[in-house]
Amino acid sequence: MTLDRLKSIFSDNGCKKIYVKNLAPNDNSKNQVYFAGSFEFLNILPVINIIAEDAGEWKKERFKASLDFSWILDDGELDLAPNSQLILYPKYPEVRFSGFLKGCRNAPSELMKQRLPDRLFFFSVTDENRVIGYVTAPDSQLANEVNSLKSPLVYGVFRVLELTDENSNRIKLLRELLRINQLGWIRSKRLDRFGNILPCEASNCGGYTLEAELGITPNGYSEPDYLGWEIKQFGVANFTRISSAIITLMTPEPTNGLYKLDGAEKFLRTYGYDDKAGRIDRINFGGIHKVGVLHPLTNLTLVIDGFDIESGKIRNATGKIALIDSNGNDTASWDFSSMLLHWNRKHNQACYIPSISDVTNLKSYKYGEHAILGRGTDFHLFLAQMAMGNIYYDPGIKMENASTNPKIKKRSQFRIKSQYLPHLYRENEIVHLVDDLNIFGN
Question: What is the pLDDT of residue 302?
Fold first, then answer.
């Protein structure tokens, strides 16, 4: 196997970059392969699901994340390793790779079972969200070629070999946003899953209209929206004040508590309140819920169980974010494992776009000439901002016709003020579209 040949195999599978690690003696099937000392690493891998594992007498608390991983064979074919998984140790934190030999007929067992230093392990993510990998001996031609490369990019313990120009995607994104900005007022619209343009009259059409302009169709995948970037629109009254806007980060439904076990109707009838605008036969559940603060309408308190704010680390893999009543009952909660899955890949690169709406005639939107870009996040950063009150739970749940034919609308929202966005990412910038593109001659 040569480097050109391996690059070609990765490229043919739709990969954009290759991660390469010099394996230490302990990086083997018995001891697992060390990947990272931060959960930020999850942002580049399309994990299938995450479960928490209780700490027994001889076990360390951990999460397990399933991975669709295949080994690249020397003929370029792929062989599935069906038991591959990531092991996440929250108290360090640490991410390790495990199960990559079990059940795989042509796995490179000879290399991955031994303690030979400086074997090279390669992996990447395909355009179908599979992870594919290859390993070679330290004295191979391939290893010699890689080790002779000058100044490759580095991501943690991995060297990064670019197969495409990542900055070109950033420029393409900014160019499209500038085009949309220069369109002025855009009639509210959305795309269906086939790409057909439909009218949009709901209150949240600013995001749908922007996505329609970018050609983003609705899908059920937890993947970035456009060229590897998660696109989020937020409404403002004035484009000069983009640091004081409210942004919805994600809308996951509870995974436990009365809400999940007995249903939203029982939850609303127990903890909801009569509509404050006087709409008859309607029960609401809303309002800003911050950690440690009793909400005056719902009489519930938002808590984080299993996170140490001083160290910024998860102390309990089975921890959760929960709404607790005065008797300590879990009324609705989100376990860390589900929130990790929600947050990881989709938010690694995020672009936040301000918009102004006009509803005086035909509903329309105008998009600003600035964009807020964030790169490199970690669920620990999310929990830290929530513990400080900067991220809060702000639901919009209601039940109409409560006494006759109940109709329930569910919307669980975790929100943040735009001024706190920099605390969620390792790298942040506010881009002026015209000025930034002029730098690159675009």
Answer: 98
